[in-house]
Amino acid sequence: MIYRDKITMIKNILLGLLITTLTSCINKEKVLSDQVISLEKKNDSLTSLLSEFEGKYIFDSISLRTIPSYKNTFKPNSIYEMDLIVSAYSKTDYFIKYDTIINNQKINADTLKYDNGIYRFNTELSKDKNYISIEVKVGNEYGKSKKGTVRDLIKVKK
Which residues contact 139 (CB under 8 A, 6 or more apart)? Predict the structure, then answer.
């Protein structure tokens, strides 16, 4: 294209730059609009998630305490009782008592009964040395979880 004078050439260059700038702004506006929509969706999902936690306690740590029953006599063939108390717990927690593990199988496995954060445990003291093993899993889908094994040895009095 041949320009007759410099003013027409400058006007055409400025017009081209203006069109390029406007097109670029429209594209950026579309990207920003899409980002705003995406952030609004995330905000809505986070708001609904937070509403699930209203009125609930959320714990970052878990502590476990075992309390032997005052009724324990430690005599041969007597029943030994113990409470496991969890300071932070959820309904997905579980405790499984078992005697031993043979070939990756828990022998005499039994899920402990749950009562307001206390898991009641009892076993017969049938040997001079009675070993207790309890698999513990505590936590929920939103916070930290803990899994481990509580082990104890109970000796009978003779």
Answer: 62, 90, 92, 93, 145, 146
Closest among 157, 111, 151, 149 to 132, alpha carbons compared: 151
Given a contact cutoff of 8 angstroms between Cβ atoms, the answer to whether 154 and 132 are in contact is yes
List pLDDT tens digits, range 113-131. 777 667 788 888 888 888 8
How far is CA 151 from each of CA 32, 65, 84, 96, rounded to the nearest angstrom? 58, 12, 12, 12
Under 8 Å between Cβ of 85 and 69? no
Instruction: Identify which of 118, 122, 120 has the alpha carbon closest to the alpha carbon of residue 108.
Output: 122
Sign of CA dihedral 25, 30, 31, 35: positive
Among 3, 132, 2, 150, CA closest to 63: 150
- In single-letter form, the type of residue at position 155 comes to K
To the nearest 10°, report the CA torsion of 10, 12, 15, 21. Answer: -80
d(CA 87, CA 119): 12
How does the average pLDDT of the chain come out, rounded?
78
Beta carbons within 8 Å of 15's beta carbon, 6+ residues apart:
none
Query: Does pTM top 0.85 for this prediction?
Result: no
* Average of per-residue pLDDT across 120-143: 81
